[in-house]
Amino acid sequence: MLADLMQGLRVFIELQPLLYMIFGTFFGFIIGFIPGLGGNFVLAVLLPFIYKMEPLAGLALLIGSFSPTPTGGSVSAILFGVPGTGQNAATVFDGFPLAQKGEAGRAIGAALTSSGLGGVIGAVILLLMIPVMKPIVLSLGPPEFFMLIMMGIIFIGFLGQGSAIKGILAGLLGLILSLVGMDVVTGETRYTFGQLFFWDGIKLVPVVLGLFAIAEMVDLVLTGGSLAKFDSGVDDDRARKLSLAAVFTGVKDVFTHWMLFLRCSVIGTVIGIIPGLGGDVASFMAYGHGLQTGREKENFGKGAIEGVIAPEAANNAKEGGAFVPTLGFGVPGSSGMAIMLGAFMILGITPGPDLLNKRPEILYGIVWICAFSNLLAAIFGIFIARYLARLTFMRGSLLVPPVLVFVTLGAYAYRSTYADVVVVLVFGFLGWAMKKYGYPRPALILGLVLGTLAEKNLQLSLAIYGNKFIFRPICLGLLILIAVSIIYPQIRKYRENRKGVIEGNIP
Amino acid sequence: MRNLKKNLSLLGLIAVFSIIFAGNSFAADKTAVAKFYKGNTIKCISPFSAGGGFDTTVRLLAPFLKEITGAHVIVINQPGAGGLIGTNMLYASKPDGLTLGMVSGMGATPRQMIKDKNAKFDMKKFTWIGGVSTLEYLMVVGKDTEFQNVQDVINSKRPIKMAMGGTGSGMNLAARLLALALGFKLDPVLGFDGSSDSILSVMRGETDAISTDAQIEYPGIKSGDLRPIVFVGNKRHQLLPNVPAAKELNIQSKLGKEALLAAINLSSIGRVIAAPPGVPKERAEFLQEALTKAVKDKEFLNRAAKSRLNVEYVSPDELLSAITQALGASEEVIDAVRAGFKK
Question: Does A142 touch chain B (CB under 8 A)?
Answer without folding.
Answer: yes
